[in-house]
# Entry
Amino acid sequence: MRILVSGASRGIGLEIVRALAAEGHKVLALTRSGSPVLPGNPRVQTLFADISDPATDYAALAEECTREDGLDAVVNNAGALLNAPFDTMEAEAVQYLFEANVFGPMRLLRALKPRLNAPAHVLNIGSMGGVQGSAKFPGLAWYSAGKGALAILTECLAEEWKNDSIRVNCLALGAVQTEMLQAAFPGYNAPLSAAEMGTFIADFVQNGARFFNGKILPVSVSTP
Ligand SMILES: NC(=O)c1ccc[n+]([C@@H]2O[C@H](COP(=O)([O-])OP(=O)(O)OC[C@H]3O[C@@H](n4cnc5c(N)ncnc54)[C@H](OP(=O)(O)O)[C@@H]3O)[C@@H](O)[C@H]2O)c1
# Structure
């Protein structure tokens, strides 16, 4: 399969890339960072772009990543978290979170959709905080709201794209030990490593669309 993974430079995204490449898939690793992802790995092609920047040339990005062939799957893994009380979070910070967690992933999908090989799987990486009725945590209002929007967009796109043979799902992750989690909850020890979650997501993006479409699936063994 040819699979694009965003937010590929570290954390869960890097581990998704590693797991997919190890299984022999061609991985397009999308990153804002200036460094190649898993340099020297012939199955990994790094694409440099910032999906949270509305000025990104999405048409050029889509052209670059599908020059050889279309895509079989997209993992919208890139995301940003700011932990700050609702009362003090400035509009710029809210905008930053929504660009990274909602608008950027949707711009990417709009650009890539014509280049998806049917049947294709779009997998959005959400959060337990973005699931209705889940435990909520102070400081994560706008992050959780953005992930909630991503989850609902998942359901909507699955409906709109079902006749194009594109399946769309959202994995709502619980705590995973990454730099993002450390920054948000210093000292918290998550029950899962980035490598464990990356391996699970790599498997799900290949096989999950046979069993699920338009679903928001909690992937959590803990709270948060
Ligand atoms: N760790 C957890 O406990 C947890 C729980 C629930 C959900 N998640 C979700 O899982 C995904 C991966 O998170 P992670 O824990 O691996 O976090 P991470 O280590 O911070 O990695 C997230 C990646 O997203 C990209 N990114 C960060 N800020 C961005 C911005 N402003 N604009 C565009 N891209 C940005 C970066 O990739 P590049 O620099 O390569 O572009 C970064 O490496 C995220 O969507 C996150 O919300 C994580």
In short: The first strand starts at residue 2 and ends at 6. The first helix runs from residue 11 to 22. The two ends are 33 Å apart (CA to CA). The CA atoms of residues 113 and 166 lie 9 Å apart.
